[in-house]
Amino acid sequence: MLSAGFYANAQTGIRAGWNYPELSGISSDGNSGFHAGIYHKINFLGLIALEPGIQYSQKGGKIDDGTTVGTERLNYIDVPILARFGFLPIINVFAGPQASVLVARSYKGTTDITSLDGLTKFDIGGVVGVGINLPLGFNIQGSYDFGFVDLNYNEVDSKNSVFKVSLGKDF
Length: 171
Fold this sequence. Notes:
This protein is mainly beta. Helices cover about 5% and strands about 70% of the residues. Strands 1-3-4-5-6-7-8-9 form an eight-stranded antiparallel β-barrel. Residues about 1-5 have low confidence and may be disordered. InterPro entries: Beta-barrel_OMP_2 (IPR025665). This is Outer membrane protein beta-barrel domain-containing protein.
């Protein structure tokens, strides 16, 4: 009986939006990118939800560390597991861990590089943010993703840091 109500409140959705990523620890300005993916929201007790998902996300930044000048795009598959807490029927905050796998690289500078050699290919991090539920199953959210793992970028301690704005649709 409990499980029937539990699954009756589950929703699958899609989400996409704009990224503003940076690489911490080095002289890096933001570099616009995008993200897109799917999620499955499991609602508990009305205003609490667990939301696992999977998405493609562009990270990286504009690099100018005195010896290297260029634009680095690091493309990841992210797997966040978020806990959402609603304060009103339309506003929620969320947080949770995220695992990320580096799947592609595009560096444009004095030389162009696509090899993943030398970079850490797996990242563990966190996600925090706020969301707004809109009519017809739409939602918007702003979030900040931060990596805990050193990317081994040019032998400098650097980590992923991404601000995101997203539009989603529950089905």
